[in-house]
Write a structure and sequence with these properties.
This protein is α/β, with parallel strands linked by helices. It has helices spanning 45-51, 99-102, 143-146, 149-161, 177-188, 201-210, 242-249, 270-275, 294-304, 306-310, 322-330; strands at residues 7-13, 19-25, 33-43, 66-74, 86-89, 92-93, 113-114, 126-130, 134-136, 169-173, 193-198, 214-217, 231-234, 255-258, 279-282, 313-318, 338-342. The chain is built from 11 helices and 17 strands.
Length: 343
Amino acid sequence: MTAVPGTMLAAFSGGKEKIEVKDTPVPAPGAGEVLLRVRACGICGSDLHFYRGELPALPTVSPGHEFAGEVTEVGEGVRGFASGQRVVVEPIRTCRRCSYCRTGSYHLCPKRVLLGTFASGGLAEYVTVPDYTLYPLPDALDYELAALVEPLAVAVHGLHLVDLSFGERVVILGSGSIGVMAALAARALGAAEVIVTYRYEHQAKAALAAGATRAVQAEEAAGLASERPDVVVETVGGHADTLNQAIGLVRPGGRVSVLGLFTGPVQVNALTLMLNEVRAVGGITYCRRGRHSDFDVALRMIEADPERARGVISHRFPLGEADEAFRTAADKSTASLKVQVHP
């Protein structure tokens, strides 16, 4: 067993567009928790909203919710996990007692906390996490692939919400990391055609490599209405008009999955929504609707085709360069897609 040091490096928000890496005490696992040695952590689009000051960031909380690592210590009452075990984290801390938790919709628990927002996340050498958030890693998957499970699970959940069926046609608005993951998930779930919109050439290339059948420039997205897609997945968010665009593109009776994080109110053409009986549903994180959780489904997708998933990763940085990692992720002129930090 490797001895755990008394201090570690961890990244924190130092204000708008500033990440600071500091020396801080290594946390001790409480009852039902493990201490995880983080090996890979992705930077999410939602992390960039905090980074840009569009959402409040706690200066005492390390960001990062896409992470995997190695168990180094187990707290009292932990069963089924041991020091040295390789795991990936489903980063939602919940009460595990309310009706939502008991029925598998733990992502809606009133006491839910996404690790990396209001509880410490994976941009640190070590972090404590509840044992119920852990998934053992298959031998074939390395840590950087494991850190892709979380964003892929978001896409899987969004497609489950609109009951994507085998052979359906899908349009995905946006080819950031979630848009690319949605393309990968849609093809894996049996979509016959997956069309993505993009703003940058590197995004189009990544989406096609992930399984999209066609890529269309975002400015030409209106022409996709003639495709009469069964499902449109919105992944842009922010202040974009893409939710309204999605409602206008999908066929009558079609479904819209909203995965983009909107940082302000947006207008929606409610008349089109009503006349075409479009079903639009927002998606947040992931859950367990049946025998398999969205997270487990995503893990198996990556295990089935690991190199296709790996193509989403555009940049890798050590923890000491976390500030540069965020700058790179926020600047699309760097051809960034999924930027990872490897503590």
